[in-house]
Write a structure and sequence with these properties.
The structure holds two protein chains of two kinds.
Chain A: H1 2-20, H2 25-46, H3 71-102
Helix pairs in contact in A: 1-2, 2-3
Chain B: H1 4-20, H2 26-46, H3 48-51, E1 57-64, E2 69-75, H4 77-100, H5 107-126, H6 130-148, H7 155-186, H8 191-196, H9 198-203, H10 207-221, H11 230-233, H12 239-248, H13 252-260, H14 262-265, H15 269-291, H16 296-316, H17 320-351, H18 367-381, H19 387-401, H20 406-435, H21 453-471, H22 473-476, H23 478-488, H24 506-530, H25 545-567, H26 572-591, H27 608-630, H28 632-652, H29 656-677, H30 693-721, H31 730-741, H32 746-754, H33 756-778, H34 784-787, H35 791-794, H36 814-817, H37 819-842, H38 850-868, H39 870-876, H40 881-901, E3 911-916, E4 920-925, H41 926-957
Antiparallel strand pairs in B: 1-2, 3-4
The chains are: A mainly alpha, B mainly alpha.
């Protein structure tokens, strides 16, 4: 399981980085979304993987990390997901504004891909 | 009455008042500023008994306790003397400026800066902590920039102000460094402790560094050679500014610092050579150049430079008596130089010129001003019975009786006499040239008259001071000087006598030689000038600090531009590449020395379903990365697939809250992308660019980086996953959630209770983003090819008519063929609201909470927009997203402030327990209201972002919609 998740993080992150390096604004925004998946999963994994131990306190079960998974990364990732939505929205609108102003969807706002 | 903090704040508060007054209300502004300065000076004067016999007033206010930094205000005799100079001369200049400034000048700005300067100068003088002193020091540099550049339309004022700021500001940075070194040596920044540990500082190996840095600060501020060039340039300032800053206060800050730290830093060879050397050079160079100036203010500026050099030299001689003379000269110079600047200002004001060559015989028209200026310039020349004479005698005595290297013993008296001779020459040029001689030239810009009475009063007061001190020094200034000089020399005053007549001594002979030589020199120079010779100072071309400064500045600018050109680019791709590559490199560097090995935490067995899930997920991610270029809709869909699998992963590994949030965010992000897709250009299918080798190389490079970074991430993740997490603070949250947070959903309790401040910040970011999106889209102009109706709608024939599709008649394309989904969406709206309420209410104990509930509501509303069209929805319901955002933020912040009002830290949760009929016992934590605020912000922000985007299509279609459909080529039927 751990190996699979590590590979997943690598693949998501790598695809995101590839897209972030592309010349079209849409590609960059997509890349950032992929990167945020990878980063969220990564932060989430810091707390170690646990199955069937949601951090919902049940009566009679001692509140220790043996019985529940780590809530800390979850709280962080929850914040990150919402902020990620906000930044994606902002980037998308900047993308549209840049497209409207410059007439192109190249990241530098220039029509030609000059060296 | 001894709160020094209030004393420093008084002018600063006054400057707030003057800022609010009408900008040209000269009289009112002068009243305010004058009263503030007069009150401050009366206050300072009343403090004399406290410092008279070596007493110190101390006031300590905690500033940054964690760093051991306090705000310390400290007044001893020396600080008292400077405070008197700052406030009394400030009050006089306020009065003077009322008449000097023209009714058309923006006087409010002048008085505001003036009072701000007074406050910062008082701050320097009264600082009992060196860090604090540096802060006020830089503040004076900044305010003096504003004051020198007061007439900001003039190029010379701009240049002069900039030069003064750069030179003194850079010096201030050096001083900061020096102060840090001193603090390192002594172990504290408190002045009291530092003054006690002179020996420790002087014997420390870092002493030369500290000394050099402090001296750089002091020399730049006090315009010492070779940094003197900024002062003549600063004469572009209004004359009251020069009278205040460039005679009595700002330029004195440097010598103030030297005297302040005299017990700590002086007494070494290095001090003697650096301070004494700079002082001697400045004294001679300044007085020499002053003789050849033709502008009244420039004569005074160079004279100020030379007098500051004199003070520096005195402080550099390592003799207590010389230091006393230095302190005395600070006082004397301030009095006569301020009055001379004011007199020069009156002459300028009345005649319209400051050129000595054009001014003559003014005594006939302005006898009062003339007499005052003559007395003051006599004091500057060091004529007996005036204050300048006394301190200069003390200086001469020091040069005669110094015991040092024979060359210095012989050379210093000669240098002193020479400089005094030069002083007599320029004083004569200033006093005699313009007030006597031939009648007034008829071609002056203005025909002079005597200045207004109240403009002369400040000059009169200062000149009277010069006379009184010069005639009865021991009675008038004796006690104050003793109190001021005692702290400078370390507590024990040397023997000295303040008297006009000491018998026929060597200093007196030197004075007489200087006066006689000066008169002779003046006559010779006048003859030369009349013959048109020696119009500029000879032999000074090489010492042109200003040219060096300009060269240095130009060189630095060029260097930075080249560096930027070399290292930077405007293009995003190389920047991104560099950022990622550097991050990767740094990670590798940090991992150096740690062999890559996996931990031994028990692995979870791989579940087949999960593996299949992620194979699909990874295929989605990689294909999305490929398809983002070719087919955006497909890419968005694939991205959604990867998101869904992520969401399931959260579910799988015991994170129900994350799964819930991820899925609703996924939905809303997809809608967002779909709305935005409309405005992106179509891919040009036909004109396929030829694939070049360079493109290939670039893609290869990017691919290598992406694979490398991805592998790094994977390795890092695996290394981390196979080890036990440290769990440093997590047990705290787990164990406290129920007893203290009052809920069993730990993640939610953390968000709305333990880390509520973080969440408050987050919803604020969300609101800001929403408003930014809205603002950006208000100005959005869609590209021309996107304004036309979509291709699919255009190709439909005009006469097409079915029951559902009425593409040319309905504004919202959705209205027709989306009828069935619309009905379902309408029906589902109450259900969605119920779901949201459910999520919200159970959030404290079960997965859910404000975020999820807010997003569910937002999605429910957006479904109405999507299926029924914008117009239809907004005709029936008017959502006001900004209102949601504002009330949500208010509620969240208000909940936090409620805790403060009850005396608890911000955002402390309180749980109320009460019984409601039918429902039973209810726990109502105040965190619920906070969560409600979060909910409201999320609804508002999501709606605002998405409706703003959706409204674009209505706006864009407005010119062509719906009555006048886009022209479609009619088909011949």
């Amino acid at each position: 399981m751990e190996a699979l998740l590590a590979i997943v993080i690598g693949v998501l992150g790598g695809s995101g980085i590839w897209l972030v390096l592309r010349p079209r604004t849409f590609q960059v925004v997509m890349g950032l979304t992929l990167l945020s998946y990878a980063v969220n999963l990564f932060i989430f994994c810091v707390g170690s993987l646990a199955i069937d131990k949601p951090p919902l306190v049940r009566a009679g079960v001692a509140t220790t990390l043996e019985n529940y998974t780590d809530p800390m990364p979850q709280a962080l990732v929850l914040t990150a997901i919402v902020i990620g939505f906000a930044t994606t929205a902002l980037f998308l609108v900047v993308l549209l504004a840049s497209r409207g102003l410059s007439g192109t969807d190249h990241v530098d706002g220039t029509r030609e891909e000059e060296p | 009455m001894t709160s020094l903090l209030v004393l420093v704040l008084l002018p600063l508060m006054g400057c707030v008042v003057t800022m609010l007054l009408p900008t040209r209300a000269r009289t009112a502004l002068a009243w305010v500023a004058g009263l503030v300065s007069a009150a401050a000076s009366a206050w300072v004067l009343s403090l004399f008994p406290h410092v008279r016999d070596g007493g110190v007033i101390l006031q300590t206010i905690a500033w940054i306790p964690s760093l051991g930094l306090d705000l310390v205000f400290r007044m001893d005799g020396f600080a008292w003397m400077f405070a008197v100079l700052v406030t009394v001369i400030g009050a006089l200049v306020c009065l003077y400026s009322r008449y000097y400034m023209s009714p058309t000048d923006p006087v409010a700005r002048f008085y505001t800066c003036f009072l701000a300067f007074m406050g910062s100068m008082l701050g320097i003088v009264l600082s009992g902590n060196l860090i604090q002193l540096v802060a006020f020091w830089e503040l004076t540099s900044v305010v003096s920039f504003l004051l020198i550049g007061y007439w900001n339309h003039r190029a010379d004022a701009q240049r002069g102000a900039r030069m003064a700021l750069i030179v003194t500001g850079a010096g201030g940075l050096a001083l900061f460094g020096g102060v840090l070194v001193i603090g390192h040596i002594v172990g504290t920044y408190e002045l009291d402790a530092i003054l006690e540990s002179g020996d420790r500082v002087r014997t420390h190996p870092l002493y030369p560094v500290a000394l050099t840095l402090v001296l750089l600060g002091a020399f730049t501020k006090s315009a010492q050679f070779p940094f003197h060039f900024w002062l003549p340039r600063a004469m572009a300032a209004p004359t009251p500014v020069s009278a205040y800053l460039h005679s009595a206060t700002m330029v004195k800050a440097g010598v103030f610092l030297l005297a302040r730290l005299w017990p700590v830093l002086s007494g070494t060879e290095l001090w003697f050579w650096l301070v004494g050397g700079a002082g001697a050079a400045t004294l001679l160079v300044g007085s020499f150049i002053a003789m050849f100036q033709h502008d009244l203010k420039r004569v005074l500026a160079y004279s100020t430079i030379s007098h500051l050099g004199l003070i520096t030299l005195l402080l550099g001689l390592n003799s207590p008596l010389a230091a006393v003379a230095g302190v005395f000269h600070i006082l004397n110079h301030a009095t006569f130089k301020a009055s001379l600047f004011m007199a020069a200002g009156i002459v300028d004001h009345e005649t319209g010129t400051r050129d000595i060559r054009r001014l003559q015989g003014l005594m006939r028209r302005m006898p009062h001003t003339g007499t005052l200026a003559l007395v003051a310039s006599a004091a500057m020349a060091g004529v007996p019975l005036l204050n300048g004479f006394l301190s200069k005698e003390m200086f001469f005595a020091e040069t005669v009786f110094i015991s040092a290297h024979p060359w210095i013993e012989k050379g210093l008296p000669v240098l002193a006499t020479l400089a005094a001779t030069f002083a007599v020459v320029y004083s004569l040029r200033f006093g005699y040239d313009i007030f006597f001689g031939r009648p007034i030239a008829p071609d002056l810009p203005r025909q002079p008259e005597e200045a207004p009475r109240w403009m002369r009063i400040p000059v009169e007061l200062l000149v009277i001071c010069c006379l009184v001190v010069g005639i009865i020094p021991a009675i008038s200034v004796g006690p104050a000087l003793a109190a001021a000089a005692r702290p400078v020399v370390g507590g024990v005053l040397p023997e000295y006598s303040l008297a006009v007549w000491h018998g026929m001594s060597a200093p007196l002979v030197m004075s007489l030689m200087a006066i006689v030589g000066g008169i002779a020199g003046y006559l010779a120079l006048r003859r030369a000038h009349r013959a048109g010779r020696l119009m500029n100072a000879p032999m000074t071309g090489r010492f042109n600090g200003r040219r060096l400064f300009d060269h240095a500045l130009a060189g630095l600018t060029r260097l930075s531009r080249t560096t930027v050109e070399l290292l930077s680019t405007h293009r995003l791709q190389p920047q991104m590449f560099t950022i990622i590559a550097v991050a990767l490199l740094l990670a590798l560097l940090a991992a150096r020395g740690f062999p890559l090995d996996w931990g031994d935490r028990a692995r979870l067995p791989a579940a087949q379903a999960f593996v299949i899930l992620w194979v699909i997920g990874m295929v989605c991610a990689v294909s999305a990365a490929v398809m983002a270029k070719f087919h955006r809709l497909v890419a968005i869909t694939l991205m959604g697939g990867a998101g869904l699998v992520t969401c399931l992963t959260f579910m799988w590994f015991s994170a129900p809250d994350l799964a819930l949030t991820q899925i609703v965010v996924e939905m809303i992000t997809t809608i967002l992308f779909l709305l935005g897709l409309r405005w992106l250009p179509m891919r040009l299918e036909g004109v396929r660019k030829r694939f070049t080798l360079r493109d290939g190389a670039r893609r290869g490079r990017d691919l290598v980086l992406a694979v490398a970074a991805g592998s790094g991430l994977a390795a890092l993740a695996y290394a981390m996953l196979t080890r036990d997490a440290p769990h440093s603070i997590s047990p705290f949250f787990l164990s406290r959630a129920l007893p203290e947070g009052g809920g069993s959903n730990v993640v939610n309790i953390m968000l709305v209770d333990f880390r509520a401040f973080d969440t408050l910040g987050e919803v604020t970011v969300l609101s800001v983003v929403a408003l930014t999106v809205y603002a950006l889209l208000r100005r959005f102009r869609p590209p021309s090819e996107s304004i036309e109706q979509p291709h699919q709608q255009r190709v439909l024939p005009q006469e097409i008519a079915t029951d559902l599709v009425k593409p040319h008649r309905t504004g919202d394309a959705g209205l027709g063929y989306m009828m069935v989904p619309a009905v379902i969406a309408h029906l589902m709206l109450p259900v969605s609201v119920l779901v949201a309420v459910h999520f919200f209410l159970r959030g404290h104990n079960q997965p859910g909470g404000g975020f999820v509930a807010g997003l569910v509501i937002a999605i429910a509303f957006l479904m109405q927009y999507l299926t029924s069209g914008t117009r239809w929805v907004e005709e029936r319901a008017r959502f006001r997203p900004p209102l949601w955002i504002a009330s949500g933020l208010l509620l969240a912040a208000g909940t936090g402030l409620g805790a403060v009002a009850m005396g608890y830290p911000f955002l402390t949760t309180h749980t109320a327990h009460f019984t409601v009929p039918l429902i039973g016992e209810v726990h109502l934590p105040s965190a619920t209201f906070f969560d409600l605020g979060v909910f409201s912000v999320v609804v508002g922000a999501a709606l605002l972002i998405l409706t703003a985007l959706a409204h674009q299509s209505i706006r864009a279609h407005r010119p062509t919609a719906p009555e006048t459909p886009a022209p479609v080529p009619a088909r011949s039927g």
